[in-house]
Write a structure and sequence with these properties.
Elements (H helix, E strand, L loop, with lengths): L1 E5 L11 H12 L4 E7 L2 H5 L8 E4 L5 H4 L2 H10 L8 H7 L1 H9 L2 E5 L7 H7 L4 E6 L3 H11 L3 H24 L2 E4 L2 H6 L6 E3 L24 E5 L5 H21 L4 E5 L16 E5 L5 H5 L3 E4 L9 H9 L3 E3 L1 H4 L15 H13 L1 H18 L2 H12 L21 E6 L6 H9 L8 E6 L6 H6 L7 E6 L6 H11 L4 E5 L4 E2 L3 H8 L5 E7 L8 H6 L3 E3 L6 E3 L3 E5 H6 L12 H11 L4 E10 L6 H22 L10 H13 L1 H8 L1 H20 L22
Parallel strand pairs: 1-2, 1-4, 2-3, 4-5, 5-6, 6-7, 8-9, 8-11, 9-10, 11-12, 13-14, 13-16, 14-15, 18-22
Antiparallel strand pairs: 16-21, 17-22, 18-21, 19-20
Length: 711
Amino acid sequence: MRIVFVSPMLPNPKPDNAGERYLLQLYSALDTAETLVIAPETPRSVAAVQPGAAAHLLIPFDDRSRRFMPRRLHNAWRHAFSVSPHAGFARALRQHPAARRALARADIVDVQWESSQLLLPLLRRLAPKARIVLTFHDVASQQKTRELAAARSLGARIKAAVGLAQARWLERRAHEWADELVVLSEKDRSILPRPDRATVVYPPIAADVVAHEPSGAGANGGDPRVLFIGPLWREPNREAVQWLVDAVWPIVRRAVPNAQLHVAGSLPESIAPLVPRAPGVTYAGFVDDLDGLYASSAVLAAPLQQGAGVKFKVLEAIARGVPTALTSIAAEGIGDAVFTPHSDDSAEGFAAQLIDALRNPDTARIRAMRGSEWASRRYGWAQFVRRVEAVYGPAAGNHDPVSTDDRRPAPAITVVIPSRNGAATLPDQLDAAAAEPEAGDLEIVVSDNGSQDRTVAVARAYAGAFGSLRVVDSSAAQGVSHARNVGARAARADRVVFIDADDEIRPGFVAAIRQALDDADAAGGLPVTGRLGPPDPAGAEAATALRRAPFGTMDYGVGCALGVRTDVLLGLGGFDESFREGHEEVEFCWRLQLAGGTLVGVPGAVVDYRQRPTPRSSFRQLRRYSRSAEQLRSRYVLSLGLPPASVERAAKALTRAVLFAARDLRRQGAIEVARRLGWTLGGLEGTIKYRRPARPAQEHSTDAAKPSPAP
């Protein structure tokens, strides 16, 4: 496997910023591949050429635009179009013989940093056989949106608006120019126009850190220390320190007079006169080893006012068990439904975070250790290696035969994951399953329903995380029902649980479902839409593991969190494969209960359900669901006495949705309006298509038997 990285900088053995550190860690994780880094010859890249440096090719370049533009105009142009490579680098890359040869031989070309995105069309021509990967360290449109909101002068607003337009255009084109997109956080993925095309690779920030008891004292042994880390040649860091010293630090010093603020990070001589001075504030410059600073600090301060992307220094502190004081920008993208750090954007609130950590170090430490435990899982080395293998590993893989003929002891439960083109999100679900205590005994069956992407190869990257992992071919018929049935027939356990490739189970999910199936034939978990943090409190209180099916009849368990005893599932013939647009789990749960089977809800089996991210995808999803709801009504209208379908009623509902769309758009947003329009349109289509009652489905198996409650 030959991988060529095209990057504005080299992996640096002594990284000065988070991006350099990530590139170094990525290079280390790919040590078995033949790798080469192509970068422009800049002072920073030259400084990174040290013993043990990565195999590299530095390309001299000439910025000819400087010859024809006045200095001020050149700088304005460069800052407005910040999503661009070094001027002249593309021309030099195209003309460099060694670079052209390396790119022509490459299996993968990885373009690091969104600033290099404009190189993609050129790289596609120079590396026609390679798979192109684009890695976003930040999503530029978010940064430009904030710059536009903060701009005060007309010139600043114009510059930010131009940069924002360019960034958004490039982010839309990224899906066309690159084969795969990589981001470093779920937050960044959610910002992109096509989140379903981007894979998250969480940096291994917790891999080489050890949580320890911070002393909280400075170098003089007694004064409690507040720590800020970040290179001050970056403007967002200077602005953060300025606000911290001017607005926050006086409040802290009044409450804790002997508090010390230690600022660590590169401080060029040209910038030194610009940094603010105050009693108790020390500038240490670049510090090679940060372990001692973390150990001797009571709290890390991250008072960022600008910026985008996940702040690695915050994650490093969390992983070490160091208390943190954060603004919302410093905290964004960090945390999930299991752990979310606190933040405050006011000077008083931010100061209160610092004062609390300085005055109550033991209590702050206990809170911080919860974050450390979370970070060790989310940002550990094992998950990083698996995700890197998922992105950079072989492009294809083979399916396993659908067979239960295995002499190994049968697992206690089989997890079936149906997937069609789910390579981007499948790592999230597999990592969540790998974090379960019983992962070493789990059987995972990924049922590939005709994927055209790298779903099979991605699944193979996780083979070592479980007791058994197989990928079975379910492409003979399209639809999740067929994929689940094929996966269930391949299961060796007497219990099977179905989860989806684009969701993420929470800790304890598998154990809760397994235990519920001790006394029931089927068990439904609790899907919540809280992927980036705790679910909405009102929604969490209203949510139930079992849901009332359409038309106010029997309950059902949602298919992305449904456990069933294997003999019961196969005895009833599995899921009805004629339901290709949704409600297949409703139909199965109804059929199960009508046959005398038992269905229970399991509130402790929580799964974070990923909603469709755009109005268009939401419209299409709800349109399909509504058509399938009418298929369900047609199937059971006579046996359950459901209200009959009415074309007139469906047409009126669609008319109301269209007439009030503009009003609802202002009140509820585009996605909610799209969902309502999709549901009402699908309802009308389904009513017309399924207006005649259908005969109840016959079991798919000749030996179908009436299920009985499990012993």
